[in-house]
């Protein structure tokens, strides 16, 4: 019943227009290599403050999934995935394009993303309220354990280098403590600058690290022309019956891989997409006529479904727990907070109408994206022909104007430039950006939870592991770290051989 009311909220001409705008913008940005849904949301964030909260969040939902749809187009047609989540699907997708099956590869990608997203969102509708009610049992110790789990999993476990990941996490935590201490009222690292009393704006941080950092990175590589050419996509933008039956099991298996990874901060969508790809490849070896390496349709179907299924359940984790499990989810959490909305266990009680309308918009957005991508994917690919100097200059101007329009502060412009340079250096030396964003978002929660837990227990540290939930979270974290270490040792062993 609540979901039907949500559809009633969304199915108005104005809100449908915002869904369409979000889907178009998300896909357009996702097509461009190096960008993605996180940057699209970051760029839109300062420009949507004049909108009603529901309209803005509906548009962000379209951007959220639209970026994932667009990521795969560049990977299939140019072998240059728009984001890391599209790498696995690009392996066989680009081979299909090279053999003249680019339309079928794009259709497989679009339908796979639709399948994974719809099934995952359906699960979110049924289980997010239950998850939120269970989360009501969380106290300060549980929230601190959850934050620590997110910190370590996204920095030490997921990053290629644990040292770089932890360094990025430390940078984010340092930024998160700038401003007035909410407990003591003391100034922390403000250097007497009045504009820093409220801390570093999450809008400034996300736009600087994601957008301006990428602009500087691309500008620094102007002398490195890419020789990849765009493969023309001509023919039927749909699958035959035989192709559909071939891809269907892979779509379902990919969805099964992606669903659980959206709930835990264990690497975003990259892990399940590669798991789905590896599974399809192993199954393909048992066939009489193996297709992997020649353009296997299942090699596209599985990873694409896994990526969007992860995004779908990540939205559930964000709404029910207030836990961002990826950089895009962290930026979305910032968008919620800008409108005075705090995702978490009480969200369904305090802002139920808004949440159900947002969930309804996800279903509508997926349908809109399927309609946009099946026949028009070749048109999106033409964005790849836009000269980089014009494209990234426009992004830089939009970033600066957007931040100034939202804050009206010259200090924020200086911070934008400085943090943009930091973002460039992080890309230059392979430091992950996601740990910084998640640390800034969850840092205050971790600090307040730790202080409250210590105050309530007369500074007894055992209170942090005094409940079954905290014990399970820490055991899961230790298991994830050990598994990561074992996998990295094995990978080094193979390289030595």
Automatic annotation (TrEMBL):
Task: Specify the signal sequence span.
Answer: none
InterPro entries, per this entry? Answer: DUF112_TM
Keywords of this entry:
Membrane, Transmembrane, Transmembrane helix
Give the highest taxon in the source lineage: Bacteria
What transmembrane ranges does the database entry give?
16-45, 57-78, 105-131, 143-159, 165-184, 196-219, 314-336, 356-378, 390-417, 466-486
Q: Which residues form the DUF112 domain?
A: 16-437
Name of the protein this chain belongs to: Putative tricarboxylic transport membrane protein
| Organism name | Auraticoccus monumenti
